[in-house]
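INTERNAL AUDIT FORM
Audit reference: QA-55
Scope: verify that the stored structure record matches its stored sequence.
Auditor: D.O.
Record contents follow.
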Amino acid sequence: MVTHRGASMIEVLVTMVIIAFGLLGMVGLQARLQSTEMESYQRTQALLLLDDLRGRIEANRLEVATYPDHAPATASVGTNMTCPAAGAAATRALNDVREWCLALQGAAESLGGNSVGAMIGGRGCVEDLGVGPAGDLRVRISVAWQGLTPIAAPVEACGAGLYNGTAGTPCQGDLCRRVVSTVVRIANLK
């Protein structure tokens, strides 16, 4: 009778290979979940900042037409930008844009002396849409930021060209730029 030696060892090795592949799959899934969670966090922060300026504009109806002058779509405020100066002569709209600019830079939370309370590369824009059919003033508020993974490039102008990756990276052509926008309508009560 011939006995087979080592059969158990082969079974153990095959089991170890299967477990290793399973663990590698779980590590990949965890990395993807972390990236998705960060994208979700950044979008939430952008929506909060968008709503912040919307509320400020609605509370300052008389100066609504001046907000686009302080944060135009072609020259946004936020990360790597000097926020508008505050002072006694500054208008309420200018002070609102300054506070919004600081929030876009992450001033709400700091770690080691660095502002970390906002999105990666957060930028904000206010665009004058003119007078609506009912005589209401309309402005578009947009918040742009750097996403982690490429998707379709947004059509909004805010932050366009600021988040292009270098040649050979997946973020070319603004594919990693994210933008959320809302239109604020202020009724003409005259």
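Auditor finding: record pair retrieved intact. Residues 7-186 form one domain.
Action required: none
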